[in-house]
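Format notes (please read before filing issues)

Several people have asked whether sequences and structure tokens are stored in separate files. They are not. Every record keeps both together, in the order shown below: the sequence lines, then the token lines. Line labels are part of the format and must not be stripped during preprocessing.
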Amino acid sequence: MRRIFHGEASGAVMEITELPQWQFQIAMLIGLITFTMVWARGMRRYTPIQDLSQAYKALIIGFIGGAVLASALDIWVFRRMYEDLAQDALYLVEMGVLLLLAGWAEGALCVYLCSRSERKVTSAATTTGYAFGIGSAAMTTAVAAVRIFDPALASIGSDVHGFGVDTIVVSILIGVAAGFTFAPLGSAQGALVRHKIRFTPLVITGAGRAAVRLCIYLAVLVSPVALGFGLALALWLDARANNRWLPSSLTPLQLRVERRIIKNRNLGHSDNEEE
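Then the structure lines:
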């Protein structure tokens, strides 16, 4: 019987399996694939027409902060969930509170970075938030991949465990779920920072980050089916980011520059076809 509140301390302790170096490197590579995939999807349009200096800084901070937060949650949440499942119990309320606090802390850092970037470069807050989310998602994915490659997960009945094609595919899906939620949530915060709205988006996006992380942990520890909510949310948020939040950062001048670039590109294609 699985419960949602802690009744007594768990007797099981998670034994950490030391992965071969090449498996660890593949896990890190999956994190980098997440970064490349989400950046290409969201930021490619803005690279030639916007000053992305603040976004690059936020990306680095996202990598560092994401690594620290992912490591902390690995100890405070993931391992405790593992130990609870080993005792046939899952205390979602306590784990959910920790994930919420982590999501709000990450959201607060995102608000600070977006506000700071907007003061330095006009209309930079949205892309800054997006880039910060990319860095955090990449590190979350890499740590999750390391965990899912651990064959010890078989002892608690996880549907996927150990290194193999199935766990690589699930790790990439984790990257999709994390990347296309964390980055759009950051862009939403950035878009609203430009209108001096900070607190409400922080609360909502923090809850969103917490929900996605919970889906990821359940996907690793129980079944990849748990990723369904995260992937559905990612599809919706990605559409919102690319159709609403990110374009809202473009100034009239930048839109004219973009139209000129597209026009010149089309003229170049026409000349090549005539030749």
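For reference, the curators noted about this record: The radius of gyration is 20 Å. The helical segments are 21-43, 53-86, 92-120, 125-148, 165-193, 199-221, 227-245, 252-274.
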